[in-house]
Amino acid sequence: MAVIRQKQLRSATCGSGQSSPASGRGISRRAALERLAAVAALPLIVGAFDEAAAAPLNYSLKPVAITEGVWVLYGVPEAIDRNNGGAIANVTIFDTSDGAVIVDSGPSKRFGLSLVECARSLTGKGVARVYLTHFHPDHVFGNQAFEAQALAAPQGVIDGLATLGEDFASAMYHAAGDWMRGTELVLPGKVVIDGVEEIGGRRFVTTVLAGHTNSDLIVREATSGVVVAGDLVFLDRAPTTPHADLPKWRSSLEHIARIDAQHIVPGHGPVEDGFRGAVQTREWLAIVEETIREAFERGLSMNEAMTSPLPDWTKSIALARYEFERSVMHFYPKLEAGNWPRVDKPI
Amino acid sequence: MQLTKPIQASPGMSRAVAPWAGVNMRFGLLGACLLAISLATAIFWWPASAAAEGADDPLGSPMWSEMKAQFFANASFVFDDRVKVLVPSIVENQAQVPVTADARALQDVRKLVVFADLNPIQHVLTLGVLKAEPFIAFRMKVEQGTPVRAAALTGDGVWHVGGVFLDAAGGGCSAPAMARNDSDWTDTVGHAQGKLYRELDGSVRARFRLRHPMDTGLARDNTPAYFIEKLDMRSDAGEQLATLEIREPVSEDPTLTMVVRLPLQDAGLTILGRDNHGEEYRSVIPAGWRQSAVGAAGAAAER
Predict the structure, then answer these.
(1) Greater pLDDT, A53 or B224
(2) CA-to-CA distance for B96 and A329, rounded, in angstroms?
(3) Sign of CA dihedral B89, B92, B94, B100
(4) Is A304 in Cβ contact with B300 (below 8 Å)?
């Protein structure tokens, strides 16, 4: 169950390191505001061209080796914002003799380009394959950095992206700001089904499950025993539910718990060698479902339901209250439409 | 995943000081443009009214003097924290933002008005409080970040104003209704669902959903305005308990929570409605009294 930290394996820092999501931008928000306040009184327009404030944004990617030839770029346990540039989800890189194999492409074009460079510096090779676990924007908007034919995802993921991609893009621009500059939707060119893909001496076993969305890919690399679970598994960061189907999600977690895995990479949170993430995700979903149903059955409004107490153990889960509020907004309308009796009468 | 519209709702004071505070200085061109526009706006209204506005309105809204005139005319008003407006800390869907307006901490409230300063249509709804509590929960569309306010008119003729700043991405008012994608949406207009719950104090909480597109008339597809404009809550004996004037910003398929003093022997709560095309709707939510009796938000906090 040990959390894998910087082991005595090859690790590195990718990118220039001038500015990282974790350490913040070249100028803090507070500093920017103070600067603004200072200039507001007199030469108003000067503030818009403040050159110190115009330093380029740069994801400083810090790959963490989890076993020989496998690295994870950890997402920060935060909501997408203009400090982290949307880099909140984990990205996995495998070294193979045919090139790097990557799972999930990150939140933006800029991230994708950094990811290509990072993979090259780790493996000395180009990118042979990018698997996408599901259609959520923090996992797929780095696609532009890759050839469409290198990008592989289940048909459900491709369809979901085709339908929701534009809305996701606009929401991402709003939430992450300039980190998204130039980012456009790119659909994967290869459809993944259940099976095995051998690439450069590694065996990637792909299984299409569902529950977090209607199509969730897990990738198990047989030679290393690394299982990339995508957002079916969260660890120490509250799961998100905008497209969730809870019964399906539960069966997918049961499936994952039966896999022979040396290391499990959750979609968000630390890599561990046990199933703590799957167990915690199952418990969180149970709490959310039960608490929201109880609030609904007591006749509370959505805003009132959002204030429902959560168990103490959730205090150590990042974004617990935030995701609970979101889940209320996801599940309440379905409860209302599905449970209340019809009451309209003829005039 | 992390998104659909993950935006922090901020307590409005920072915006009172600097309406452009949300603009990140590192945006490059886009940021520069936004900033320039913000500054231009500031220059335009600042000399005339900014200082007064800032002191006047806790949310620092550039529309406040307009809002005052529109909703209070010459009546007196006070900002009053006892009038609560609850919004989520993030806007998940700007066409369905849950809002609860609650003035139950005040005595003798006659009317509760909800409005959003920076919406294209500011007036959201007006609850007429007869035999009811000054409390309403609903979902609304927002076009951009905006103050969302509730104003309670008490018997002495004074408006008590509370509110919060809701941050949001745009598009709620100008996006076509979801039901437009269903070929059979006309079949479900007027379908209603609901349930009554007894409160600890003997009053009755009504939750009610009425299927209706609630078209604002501002949608990109030029659909004309088509919305429920009036609901009338009555007892078995036909006594009016509360009235609700509803406007375009209320979300598609209005889903409401109200608290009325329905006589407990009544068979149900009758809700009469009318839309702006003159179509009438009638529903009776049966009084089942099988649900546990709880007192609103306080009950949740006590658990």
Answers:
(1) B224
(2) 9
(3) negative
(4) yes
Say if residues A336 and B207 touch (Cβ distance below 8 Å).
yes
- The pLDDT assigned to A41 comes to 39
Does this complex have an ipTM over 0.90?
A: no
Range ranked top by mean pLDDT from A20-34, A174-188, B100-114: B100-114
Q: How many domains does chain A have?
A: 1
pTM of the model: 0.82
Instruction: Using a pLDDT cut of 90, give the percent of chain A over it.
Output: 80
Question: A36 vs B139: CB contact, 8 Å cut-off?
Answer: no
Which residues, at least 6 apart from B73, have a Cβ–Cβ distance to it below 8 Å? none
Residue B164 bridge partners (DSSP): B148
Q: Nearest Cβ partner of A303 from B8, B99, B294?
A: B99
- DSSP 8-class letter at A150: G
Using the Cβ of A167 and the Cβ atoms of chain B, whether some distance falls under 8 Å is answered with yes
Indicate whether A17 belongs to any domain: no
d(CA A80, CA A86): 5
Q: Print the domain residue range for A183.
A: 32-277
Judge whether A16 lies within some domain: no
Q: Which of residues 29-48 of A touch B (CB under 8 A)?
A: 29, 32-33, 35-37, 40, 44-45, 47-48
Find the mean pLDDT for residues A218-239.
98
